[in-house]
Amino acid sequence: HEGPRRVKRAWVIPPISVSENHKRIPHLLVQIKSDKQQPGGVIYSIKGPGVDEEPLGIFSIDKFSGKVFLNAMLDREENDRFRLKAFALDLGGVTLEDPTDLEIIVVDQNDNRPLFRHDIFTGHVVEGAEPGTCVLTVDATDADDPDTDNAAVRYSILEQGSAAMFSINGTTGEICTAQPGLDRETVGVYNLTVQAADMSGDGLTTTATAVIYLEDINDNPPEFTKEEFSMEVEEEAVGVDVGKVFVHDKDLAGSPNWLAKFTILEGDPEGAFAIRTDPYTNDGVLSVAKPLDHEMRDRFELTLSVQNERPLEPVVAASPRALATVRVQVRDVNEAPVFRENPRRVSVLEGAPPGTPVTTFTASDPDSRQLQTLTYALLYDPADWLQLDPRSGTVRTKRELLHPSAFLQGGRYIALVLARDDAEPPLSATGTLSIEILEVNDHAPMLQPTTAVVCGQPGRGGNVLLGATDSDRPPHGAPFHFQLSPQHSQLARNWSITRFNVTHAVLAVLVELPAGPYSLPLLLRDSGTPPQEQQQLLNISVCHCGRDGTCEDGALAAATAGAGITLGALIIILGSIILLLVLVVLWAAWARGRQRALRKGLLQSSRDDMRDNILNYDEQGGGEEDQDAYDINQLRHPELFLSRVKPPVRRDAPLSSATPLAPRKLPNSPSDIKDFINEGLEVADSDPSVPPYDTALIYDYEGSGSVASALSSIISSLTDEDQDYDYLSDWGPRFRRLADLYG
């Protein structure tokens, strides 16, 4: 092993110091040498930050002389030292010496001012704080070498107003109160200008602002703006604001130290008034809590007090202006009438006759100091049962009060009475009259059912459950009492009645009875006052008993039970049968008439000119099938029909109708056609053998078809059968229109 080499001193380079911001560039820092070769035979080089590493180009070396130069200004705050490597090589590139360290130290200069962390510092302190109460701390930094005075920062207050209320620690920057007497109401915010200087206060400086807010305490009591307040309010007004009482407080607006709380101390024992705080103005708002009555009391004198929501500081004395007097005048206004008893509940017996007094329903006028007259009217009387005296308010029945009725609600009849004064404008009030219709025992219980079937042997199903219903309401109904008619004492030998419950009883057979119908008169009585009773028949069919206690022959029992059918049921059954028979006969007659019409057809083989007939549409019987009601040929040539022995028979006449005694005399000339028609009409109307024309007329059916062509054929058809209608002009003004059409 080789021992450690001895390094020559010329190749060991001590640290080199150079000041930052050096302006003489380039600047020789050091010269390095090697003793291995003669001068000129060694090549020198350096490597490291500032040479071939960032930042580049700061240092350089003369490769032949070994001189190291500074080529740029240095900034200690960016790099406070550089560590380089120096190399020595021969001309062939062979290393002559081991690389050696070259350290360059940058010497600091005071080229940086102190910097505050914030431009504005804020702090809070309560008003009245003791001296020495610390509020906040300001701090600044200096980028220079902290081991030198270049970074030694000291603090001071340059400006804080006229009174030096705060002080600052020069080393730590802590700001504290310096004097007593901080009052938010006097000065609420302090703005301090603070300074930081390096070189222990003698170097570079910078400034910042410290804002100190004084926090409020309740050191000012609320006070009324004046000692007395006057207000007015109308009587009967509830919930309305009467007026405001004004206060002021120097404490911070909106805080609990400022918000006022009011109390009514005296003058309102009934609690007619209330006072609240306006959250925006902090004033007191006096309002009416209960209706005021001018006639009872027309003025009030209230004593009010005010205090804050948060108690005063103990050192603060109460203000004498925390009390005030409020005088309230109550104005008289017209008040509506009042029904003292509303609703008024009365009772009337059911069936009370018209004119029966019900009650006197009156109201009172609160305006005792005003002369007014009240009148009354019925505002609501749904059944029109009542009449009311408009002056006295007396209510009477107008008609008999019925029960039950759709106008009753829970057995009561509700009516509304209107009371109105004669003030200007008039006021009114509505009273409710509730009339209870007292039940009267006016109905006897009714037996249900009235027929029954029973086995004729006692102990083998010979029992019948009887029931009853009563139209009266309790207590005039059940319990019901069933008994055999006392007028027929012999019934008790064969039958017995025992109570089952309040509405039913059991009828039992005592001895064996032959089969057949029986009618038992029963006496039914209710529990009303006075009780109502009625004797009723129970129709019983007794049958032969089977083994299980039922009737052997159900059909026989049903037939025999038919004997117990009541007269009303029999009438209903007979009426239904008769109605059914009438409907069947009517349907058969209608079907037969329709069949005959279809069989006959409409003018099947007639080739008569359709225009030769005047259809009698007043009859509305058979439409165009009824073509021979009136034959116009009879009017045109009356002499041809004188030789007829048998006059034509009308279709609407019955088969037994008699023929006229003699034919009517025909008109002498066509101008008498009107009289001829009128005479024929009169004869037909007076003929008792035919029904009148206004009975059972069919207006919607005019036959199943028509062989007549359109009405236009009257003009357009020009055949050999065309006729001359000039004679229509001789028939008078009633046929002028026809003459114009066909003449």
TrEMBL record:
UniProt KW keywords: Calcium, Cell adhesion, Cell membrane, Cleavage on pair of basic residues, Glycoprotein, Membrane, Metal-binding, Repeat, Signal, Transmembrane, Transmembrane helix
An example molecular function term from Gene Ontology annotations: cadherin binding
InterPro entries per UniProt: Cadherin, Cadherin-like_dom, Cadherin-like_sf, Cadherin_CS, Cadherin_Y-type_LIR, Catenin-bd_sf
Keyword Glycoprotein: yes
Domain Cadherin per the UniProt entry, residue ranges: 10-116, 117-224, 234-339, 340-447
Residue stretches spanning the membrane: 567-590
A biological process term (GO) from this entry: cell-cell junction assembly
Protein topology in the membrane: Single-pass type I membrane protein
Principal place of residence: membrane
GO cellular component terms given for this protein: adherens junction; catenin complex; cell surface
Keyword Transmembrane helix: yes
Location(s) in or outside the cell: Cell membrane
Source organism superkingdom: Eukaryota
Record region (Disordered): 651-670
One Pfam family per UniProt: CADH_Y-type_LIR
Function: Cadherins are calcium-dependent cell adhesion proteins. They preferentially interact with themselves in a homophilic manner in connecting cells; cadherins may thus contribute to the sorting of heterogeneous cell types. M-cadherin is part of the myogenic program and may provide a trigger for terminal muscle differentiation.
PANTHER family: CADHERIN-15, CADHERIN-23
Protein name as catalogued: Cadherin-15
Organism: Eubucco bourcierii (red-headed barbet)
Gene that this sequence comes from: Cdh15
